[in-house]
Amino acid sequence: xxxxxxxxxxxxxxxxxxxxxxxxxxxxxxxxxxxxxxxxxxxxxxxxxxxxxxxxxxxxxxxxxxxxxxxxxxxxxxxxxxxxxxxxxxxxxxxxxxxxxxxxxxxxxxxxxxxxxxxxxxxxxxxxxxxxxxxxxxxxxxxxxxxxxxxxxxxxxxxxxxxxxxxxxxxxxxxxxxxxxxxxxxxxxxxxxxxxxxxxxxxxxxxxxxxxxxxxxxxxxxxxxxxxxxxxxxxxxxxxxxxxxxxxxxxxxxxxxxxxxxxx
Length: 264
What we know:
By secondary structure, the chain is of the alpha/beta class. The chain has 8 helices and 15 strands. The protein has a 7-stranded mixed β-sheet, with helices on both faces.
């Protein structure tokens, strides 16, 4: 859909009808968005194209030609998160006390339906959240939450180790967190340089102007140092629930889910 047509549609089509119109325009049989349920001929391109993201093979970063749902706006990482919660947890069968940090709108809508008042959202500066939440200083008592979801947040936080400890502290024993970040497949250890403070410098070094590090393969070790027991889930090992080998949900085959549990 070219830009002049998009502008025209925004002017004449009421907002409540736009998703339906996009579903018709992009309709097809190759892909399905598991969140909004629409069948699509393709996903849309999105992402950043800074050289470091390609050079360091950053999973969860970079530009992809087929990543964004044109109807609900979900990215591949949101669809993977939703599918994991649906098929690998009982989050949709039981009521848990959940904290969702910097919530993705479309995922938040689904979780709010099943968790009601036990579902809390928080961000430092976000709109449409339950309250302000600084993950380096979470203003809740120890052992408050059953589940914490923190998807692509820690790479923005200067003191990520303190944030990990706060997430651990506020989880109940036996509780768990989903802690996704962009990860370089070529870096053995996480790259940080806090002398880099300009937007242009961070784009060159970390691939985004508000990122403060580039995580390496030691990310699991960093979580374990905070006390977590960490399980990695590769969705390709159970492809029947995650889009089959044809990848009809448009996921990134290299992305793993990091599930960090607080021991009983």
